[in-house]
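Q: Could you write out the predicted structure for this multi-component system? I'm mainly interested in how the pieces pack against one another.
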Amino acid sequence: MSDYLQSHKKITLAHGNGGKLSHELITQLFVPAFTESTESLNPPEANPNEAVGLQELADSARIVPPSTNLVFSTDSHVVNPIFFPGGDIGKLAVTGTVNDLAVMGAKPLYLTSGFIIEDGFEMADLARIIDSMAKAARECGVRIVAGDTKVVEKGAADRIFINTSGIGVLLPRAPEGAASIRPGDAVIVTGTLGDHGIAIYAGREGINLKTELKSDCAVVSPLVERALQTCSSIRVMRDPTRGGLATTLNEFTHQRNFGIEVFESRLPVREEVRGVCELLGFDPIYVANEGKLVLIVPPSSAEDVLKALKEHPLGYDSAIIGRVTERAPGRVFLRTVVGGERILDMLIGDMLPRIC
Amino acid sequence: MKYITEFRNFEAAQALSREIHTVLAKDQPSGTEPAREIKIMEVCGGHTAAIHKYGIAGLLPSHLRLLSGPGCPVCVTSNSFLDYAVTLAREPDVIIATFGDLIRVPGSRSSLLKERAEGRDIRICYSSLDALQIAKDNPSKRVVFLGVGFETTAPTIAASVKRAREEKVTNYLVLSAFKTMPNAMKALLESGELGLDAFICPGHVSVITGSSIYDFIARDYRTPCVISGFEPLDLLQSILMICRQITEGRAQVENQYQRAAQATGNAVAQALLKEVFVLSDSDWRGIGTIPASGLALSPEYSAFDAAKQIPLKIEASRENPGCICGAIMRGVKTPAECKLFGKLCTPENPKGSCMVSDEGTCATYYKYARS
């Protein structure tokens, strides 16, 4: 690969035209990274003899459907900056889609990846992104089985955009969804809020903020599995990305006959995030996360689920932050730090564009 | 977060809340209903936002009402000013530089946001010095900074004008709609439509001006004034100070925000204002023209005055007939009384200025307190 990078410093339009340079790019960069990283994987739910993978350079991956229900999702990634403390667009492209599958109560198995790259993009940066994707995929046990690369003229895209689509299989005890939520249920969040959004914001060009803060960008599957093992009737799980926790909770209550009460003093927020938000007039409860879960669980299992989550490093700061109420159906409301009460609405407008 | 969380302490807030209840119950025979409603106006939009963000009203006796006043810079800006800005934006050699919120406020026929979508050069700045830099970077264009706000923002714009003159930047202009607080408060009291008991006075304005600007309100109108900070404990303590004044029959200017606002204010900022601006009559949305309630560029700085340097003929301004932003700004009506509120007028699609800014009364009610 290093020889290839030596002789090809920048992406050009020809790398996306389907010809020789495209072929080289795919065989030199993508295929080795995405196959070597995952060749040892044999998902038990999949047929071990199936012919998946990129080596054939066929137009599609062939996969044998498992016997349980499938989940299928897609996510496009346009984050700016593309390299940020705690991650990069490649890692995010894997974790983003994998998390969308995982929170359904699924085990993610396969990803496809579509790249849109601007003419002139540094080949070394592309290699770094591909490596990061491969590493993230390996860590969470998914295989990147198909892909596509397009190169567009300078100015037609901002450096690099990545779409990933993913397939997973539903695990036993998968949550039924928001319709199963009942008054009295507990609301749990698996760690500090707003780390991703604020890390990205601080990393932007022209923003003179120096923080030690890292994005929380991570695969939440271990937390999902722990929660499902501990409780057989988890109502719903979601990863509160754009719009933050407040927006996710509002999605749960929308057009439902229950409300959600959140206790502001119980929200886990890092001091750095609190400080930056204070300076800029943001509210951490609206800032994006990329490695957190919000779960709604029956009250009888809340403490057990909390304990199980806290035992994993990703869930160390988990907290029960609220409860489902009969009162105020369709609404989320906040019990403020001073004991007052107010509505907690969805995010309105674009607080931080291009966060993922 | 040191020095902030202390001002959001639960126990202290509950103690202040209990004390407010106790003070107001003093004159009230036990078991009886309060004799009358007590109306306190928070003039500043920052206070309105903090009051709702922390749910302060829920900690107060039910007969104590907090009314939001005309203290959100974007909200009080008149349609005629916005129309002028829109017309300026259509001039081929003009770049408009503005604080962000203003571009979303609908004028009579258009908004700066719509004009920007049409391709006019309208840029959002975080500081007036950014606008000055745009002027330096674009010598063939005229850069007009839209000056809205109160005594808080005006000194920074004064500084940019002064620097432009020192650095001989001749294509930097300011369209001023700056406003000053005391005469607007006087106009509200004189209208007699509110029956106000007291003012929570703006904290940041007072940091610049000092506390003496409210003396005439306490003296001539027998209305208690307390300068307040913006944290929940600041506001609760200020309300307690007001309640004490009311029950003791006092009307004084008191300063709760002593950690930031001094009696004499910020002398450097005051000198800048005096050098660059002169007092002028000013057009307030919903209130009308209030004498000596605005700041215009002084004759000495007229070379930087967009209204003088680019005189334009503007079509007569008109208001959205359903919008009651004016009455809301005067504290006469609440957003819930507006037919458009939450239906046709939302933060995503604002019909009136109060729904635009984070500090706008309607936006605040919509976000934190709609039923």
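A: Regarding packing and overall arrangement: Chain B touches chain A through 27 residues (CB under 8 Å).
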